[in-house]
Design goal:
By secondary structure, the chain is mainly α. The protein has a domain of 87 residues: Cytochrome Bc1 Complex, Chain D, domain 2. It is 50% helix and 0% strand. It has six helices and no strands. The chain binds heme C (HEC). The site of heme C has 20 residues, from helix 3 and helix 4. This is Mono/diheme cytochrome c family protein. GO terms for molecular function: electron transfer activity; heme binding; metal ion binding. InterPro entries: Cyt_c-like_dom, Cyt_c-like_dom_sf.
Length: 125
């Protein structure tokens, strides 16, 4: 069911690719793309290209998909050598970063909103 929905929305995305973006709620793919841009600007120098750690920051490929609370706290307030981003990120950018990290890690889009144990993650296409 969910997979079918996902496939359907990716088809819509493919179909509308290249056309002017209309205003409205961002799709998960748009969120992830916006998050990627924030990541490249603000996080990549410590966390590495595509989340593959360069040895400086935490390896975000291993961040637990169910721990959104910890993500928000660590990013907004900082933790040890990790600077706080609460004063820098614009509203919505935390969600975008989360969507980007989830997309790289292959977290099920639906699972990001659902309780952690609700469904096994579908395998990547
Ligand atoms: C100046 C380097 C630097 C930058 C820039 C940076 N980080 Fe980090 N980050 C770190 C380091 C170092 C750690 C490991 C902190 C520790 O646990 O000691 C870390 C840890 C984290 C963690 C894991 C925290 C936890 O709960 O264990 C997350 C999530 C994270 N960073 C997200 C981000 C995001 C998102 C950005 C961009 C907005 C970002 N970081 C930018 C250095 C950085």
């Amino acid at each position: 069911m969910r997979l079918a929905l996902l496939l359907a929305s990716s088809l819509v995305l493919l179909a509308t690719n290249g056309q002017a973006q209309t205003a409205g709620p961002a799709t998960p793919a748009e969120q992830a793309e916006a998050g990627r841009r924030v990541y490249v600007m603000s996080c990549q120098r410590c966390h590495g290209i595509n989340l593959a750690t360069n040895g400086i920051g935490f390896d975000l490929r291993t961040f637990p998909a169910h721990d959104r609370e910890r993500f928000d706290r660590s990013v907004l307030q900082g933790v040890r050598a990790m600077p706080a981003w609460g004063g820098t990120l614009k509203p919505g950018q935390l969600n975008q970063l989360w969507a980007y990290i989830g997309s790289v890690n292959g977290w099920a889009v639906a699972a990001q909103a659902a309780p952690p144990t609700a469904a096994p993650a579908p395998s990547a296409p």
